[in-house]
What does this fold into?
Amino acid sequence: MALLETRELTKSYDAVAALQAVSLSVESGTVLGLIGENGAGKSTFAKCVTGLIRPTSGEILLEGRPVHGATPAIAGIPQEFNLVEDLTVAENIFLGREPSRFGLLDRKTMCEESRRQLARLQADIDPDAPVSTLSPSGKQMVEIAKAFSCDCRVLLMDEPTTILNPEETKRLFAIMREFRDRGNAIIYISHKLAEVKEICDRIAVFRDGVLVSVDDSEALEPAEMARRMVGRELTRMFPPPSAAVPGEVELEVEHLAALPAVRDVSFTLRRGELLGVAGLAGAGRTELAEAIAGLRKIDSGTVRLAGREVRFRTPAQAVAAGISYLSEDRQGTGILPDFSIEANITLVSLARYCRGGIFDRSAAEEAARNYVARFRIKPRDISAPLRALSGGNQQKVAVARGLDIGPTVFMFDEPTRGVDVAARCEIYEFIRELADSGVACLLISSDMEELLGMCRKIMVMREGQVAGFVEGDLLTEAELMYLAIGVKE
Amino acid sequence: MKQVVLNARKLFANSGGVYIALAVLLAVCSVSNEYFRNPQNLANITRQVSYSGIIALGMTFVIAAGGIDLAVGSLLALAGVLSILSMDLAPGSPALQLALAFATALGVGALGGAVNGVLVGAARIQPFIVTLGTMSIYRSLALYFADAGLVSTGNELYRTATSATFCMISVPALVMVLLTVFFTVVMRSTRFGRHVCAVGSNERVARYAAIPTGRIKFRTYLLAGLLAGLSAFLLGGRLSSISSSGAGLSYELDAIAAVIIGGTAMTGGRASVPGTLAGVLLLGIVSNVLDMWGISVNLQGTVKGLVIIIAVLIQYKRKDS
It folds into this structure.
């Protein structure tokens, strides 16, 4: 008998079916992968099974018995953090099930147990630290520790590795296998197809709310997975390498320090060049870009733009000089969900649409419509609020905003995080086109495949410093990894 | 034509409820009470609400940017007291006195607003705390300068200039309406207006979008202070005096209430200036009608409170669905 089974599970919102009659089963001791484009119904499925939302119809069976609503036996790690920032790590791990002695909180047990869970993850996190002091990947580790510390039989993980570095991902997989081998089951949702193939025993493909196929993972290659997800052949993920030769030096960074994250970074970036930036979480890549974009105080070193030394004290100065930065945290710093597509696109470049202090709405709308057409943003209604868009379309809007200032330098920070396969390809094409048009581009990414597919030269950062540049024949994942973790000097 | 209809719909989209409520209230009161529908009564209501109404326009910007300004009522008293006292500097010249009073009222208002703005925008202190503090400071300064009493002036020009009427509409009411039109344009069609909403919607995102968030917040408090000063000038002219203890008392609450009833989100990011005007009028009509029905003045606060709570309830219900 399957450990968990769904029968004809359906969830509709206003006559739109987000999930249509999905019948799926997971055996104990296995990991089931769930893949599909954004909006394919994976997260809806996860929310139904964990009891966060009620299915419109259908059944969920745990060891043959029907389940209604949330049960401790089925736990989930949501896509977005569900942590109370002001509480400590231990308090979060035990939130809602705090151990107590004589009516008082038993902090000692909480701390010890938390420490044990975190140690299993080899996460260097103090159980007494407030969650607000943790990095995003630290928070992810706390979420994972929280899920594993419950005595659940089925664990649903929604994109748990998006912000983990390869090392952390490896540790997570080890723990997942251990959990699985104790006779439990995991449902694993991810956009990273290679990871899905690595960790999962079986893989289910969703498309438009329908279960397309379930196969053993050995039988399914990433190319075939991608084809099934979009319903058509994706012959090439990355646009062909450019024949264009980079031009003059546009951006020159020398011994830049923005403490504590960036300690000493030097590099040059030519017009039309696409330089990759690799490194583990905490290597200072985002902070480097933020320092260049005027979002972070520079302690020492110089930045030259087209040969002229610049030091931006505000982001507005950097924008005026033609520097665009696409932030890695779309929800936290990237987009305004309640603002329309038009308002989001013109947020930075608003001055261009003002005549005599008055905002020229029709000019802004015209520009927004052009971007919507050019980037194939859906929906095409530019007055739609961003919260109604999928992650991929939100990201296209964010890219359009960066473009609208007419940049000479464009820094992309994790541009395809949480973006579905089809939109991802389109974003790669935009980046390539932009570089070919002569803009100096920086591509910060934790996705090695992405860096290798897009860039001919990659800078690797480690602990706030440049660990090395990789180009030519040396461009391999292994080489990047060596430099990133510092095994080979 | 279609464009006009679309724009009108957009204009009301955030705050449709308040216009419907206002229309219903107007209709019911006009039909049921002949004194209410007397144009003079309607003109009186408009004038009565204009002092806190002008303040509410500034409050709309403060709240839209995610802040709150509790000090505007006290600032009105301080600006009013100093403005009337300043008239003593030019005895014998009513016109110069008037100009002095006007400049002092706006100057003190702007200064008081700027202090709030610096503390919130530059020192990044919670606006509730900042303006709670300055609310106490401004009121106490007003009491100090006026010896806890009334300051008054015998300048007739001041009174006639601020209580003149055009087609039954008094100067303060006219100022309120014109400013509503002006600030509707500012909120909807200027860079500043959109930046205000962006800061209120998510300050971090606004900062990453190269918006000078501190400066934007500063300007909203400056504007609120300036309008409190203007309101003080108009109120001072009405009675040729300002009470240091009573002037502007609880105006900040009336203003906040009108802004929220008008459809501006309490958490910022979404604002409607015409909605605020409708909220101001709605509250004014409610208290006018209660007066006519002979309901105790002491109970009017209860009704006002209920109106505010119901308005916000409807606002949040609509957001959920």
Q: What stands out?
A: The interface with chain A takes residues 185, 188-191, 193-195, 197-198, 201-202, 204-212, 269-270 of chain B (CB under 8 Å). The first strand of chain B starts at residue 150 and ends at 152. Chain B is about 75% helix and 5% strand.
